Automatic annotation (TrEMBL):
Residues 1-309 form the Myosin motor domain. Belongs to the TRAFAC class myosin-kinesin ATPase superfamily. Myosin family. It is found in: Cell projection; Cytoplasm, Cytoskeleton. The gene is Myo3a_0. One of its GO terms (cellular component) is cell projection. PANTHER family: AGAP011099-PA, MYOSIN-IIIB-LIKE. Residues 243-265 are annotated as: Actin-binding. The keyword Cytoplasm applies. Pfam families: Myosin_head. SUPFAM superfamilies: P-loop containing nucleoside triphosphate hydrolases. This is MYO3A protein. GO terms for molecular function: actin binding; ATP binding; microfilament motor activity; protein serine/threonine kinase activity. Keywords: Actin-binding, ATP-binding, Cell projection, Cytoplasm, Cytoskeleton, Motor protein, Myosin, Nucleotide-binding, Repeat. It comes from Chloroceryle aenea (American pygmy kingfisher).
Length: 309
């Protein structure tokens, strides 16, 4: 009956919430404990010199792409923009400032895609948050809102036929997203009785993680999902916050890039599909990177170094 089906759905949602939240908090607790052990003898007054290694999960386009894939691909859009900023914009700005003879190298700027996703108040994620705040809203009303808001946008395409979804033309190509479950996964509410269940757990660790504001337990799951560390549902606000923190840290660092290329789409050893490789070189901006490295100035000594030589 419909009532039984509804109860089953609620039970499944509660089960998934329990698994996800417990996994996420324990993961955060483990990371904090590792950091405490590694930094045990570090003087908090001494400035740390760090080398950070970011190994991202990679751009994804499956037969069915859901909310999680949108979050992963958003992270990759941000990182591609960061790559463009350092390799092309800052590099060529330095040549212009020095008044060197230079022919500007154009590149595929993905800012319009980021604006489509992140602009406020009319970006896709802002509209998703808006719809998530309405109890009467559905995945269909969300898609209808997107279709009306982004009509004519070159990076947005409405879903085909009777498919409840939409497509985003990312820097790496078009991805069709299935909108079913977007609102529920974005809301990602944990019932109060489930929280009480954790607090009163006979497992000491779970009780500690859910009692008060346990800093070590609340490590934003969205960030780890982006980079392939955590196989569970994620929610948008922590995801965006984690991504923002990551980008702030990266923009303050001195980055070096290693771009990995997939030799084929079938994940087979010893097979190189030249078309697949070329496509990646093109959308990653590596052909333009090669050109700017070839034509640019790779060694930049200070005046003192130059005079001494």
């Amino acid at each position: 009956s419909p009532s039984v089906s509804c109860r089953c759905s609620l039970c499944a949602d509660a089960r998934d919430s329990i698994a996800k939240v417990a996994y996420g908090r324990i993961f955060g607790w483990i990371v904090c404990k590792i950091n405490e052990l590694l930094a045990e003898n570090v003087d908090p007054e001494v400035e740390l010199r760090e080398i950070g290694i970011l190994d991202i999960f990679g751009f994804e386009n499956f037969a069915v792409n859901r909310f999680e894939q949108l979050c992963i691909n958003l992270a990759n859009e941000q990182l591609q923009h960061f790559f463009n900023h350092h390799i092309f914009q800052l590099e060529q700005a330095a040549y212009k400032e020095e008044e060197l003879p230079w022919d500007t190298i154009t590149f595929n700027n993905n800012e319009p895609v980021l604006n489509l996703l992140l602009a406020k108040p009319l970006g896709l994620l802002s509209l998703l948050d808006e719809q998530s705040a309405f109890p009467q809203a559905t995945d269909k009303t969300f898609v209808d809102k997107l279709n009306s808001s982004f009509k004519g946008n070159l990076h947005f395409q409405p879903g085909r036929a009777h498919v409840l979804g939409f497509s985003i033309v990312h820097y790496a190509g078009k991805v069709q997203y299935t909108a079913v479950g977007f609102l529920e996964r974005n809301r990602d509410t944990l019932p109060a009785n489930v929280s009480r269940l954790f607090i009163n757990s006979i497992t000491p660790l779970l009780s500690v993680l859910f009692t008060g504001n346990s800093h070590c337990g609340v490590l934003h799951a969205g960030l780890w999902q982006c980079f392939g560390f955590l196989d569970c549902w994620i929610f948008l606000c922590p995801h965006q916050h984690s991504l923002m923190m990551l980008m702030e840290r990266m923009y303050s660092a001195n980055p070096h890039f290693v771009r990995c290329i997939k030799p084929n789409s079938q994940k087979k050893p010893g097979v190189v599909d030249s078309q697949v490789v070329l496509q990646q070189l093109q959308y990653n901006g590596l052909l333009e990177t090669i050109r700017i490295r070839r034509d640019g100035f790779s060694w930049r000594p200070s005046f003192e170094e130059f005079a001494e030589r």
